[in-house]
Amino acid sequence: MKRPVAAPKTTFANGTASIAVMAAVMAAVMAAVVFAALTLASCSASNSAATAADGRKTIVVTYSILGSLVQDLAGDQFRVVTLIPNGLDVHEWEPSAKDIETLNHADLVVENGLNLEGGMGKALSQARAAGLKFFTASDYIAVRHVAAGEGIPSGDPDQALGAADPHIWTNPENMKAIVDALAPVLQKDFGSTLADGGAGLASRREALDQKLDALDAQIRAEVATLPSASRKLVTGHESLGYFAQHYGFKLIGAVIPSISTEAESSAADLADLDKLIAANGVKVIFTELGTPPATVKALADQAKVRTVTLITHYLPPDGSYFTFERNLATAIITGLRS
Ligand SMILES: [Zn+2]
Fold this sequence. Notes:
Elements: H1 19-53, E1 57-61, H2 64-74, E2 78-82, H3 97-104, E3 108-111, H4 121-129, E4 134-136, H5 172-190, H6 199-223, E5 232-237, H7 241-247, E6 250-256, H8 267-279, E7 284-287, H9 293-303, E8 306-309, H10 321-337
Parallel strand pairs: 1-2, 1-3, 3-4, 5-6, 7-8
Helix pairs in contact: 2-5, 2-6, 5-6, 6-10
Residues 91, 167, 237, 239, 261, 313 line the site of zinc ion.
């Protein structure tokens, strides 16, 4: 796409401008804006036509963290579209009519499953019923279930003992299993549409596997520097179960004692958590997207502990899963050490 040329900067030697000159400048700027808008409109129209014509298959991924690895695997041989905008709450986000249209035009839908995409449940089941191809990432990992002593029992099915935990991406080993399961699906379903017959796909899979192994080893080495007595997690909601299980951390509790931010915490939940924090010598509460700030502040003040914000559900600016996971591990380890 050709970028519209920016309007030239107008400067005035004496720092002031007559109203007539300003009006002329404004008119020129407005003309440039209109021109840019028209150019962008024609660009996007020709882009979508080009996408349809270039023969690439479209993979629609529900959320950005999974989308990043799917993009790494797919390379530029597929068109990868992420539905839930990066930074918005994956548990709560609901698709617009336009998003549903995007979903319905997918050649393959890649979802997390385990009801992570709570707000998209209806759209996803309708797409499935309409016969769209689905790849459900959580089908390919060992699903973790809420264990005794985690969260606080209530009538909410998301926090019931035995509920399936959807936060699969916090363990890189899970993501490797997903890459290894998706690559053959792409090869089988679309290999004949790829100019290289799938050679690129196979080599990208191998490179990703190696990178994920290296990431895992790096985090293990970093965790090993933290005394095991310090490896205790209090989080915004029950989002770090897979991380904790994989790297040997104990889950003490969560501000929202649920695997979804869609739940809420009661006064009794918070009183129980306060007791758990004291009993376990916890010094930090990790907050995240969807954690109610006033509740956390009240709890932290009462328990006399620090709060550290973690990014647990969306990508950093470079859009990389690897940066995401390294940042997450480093923030947890640093937070618990100091
Ligand atoms: Zn979550």
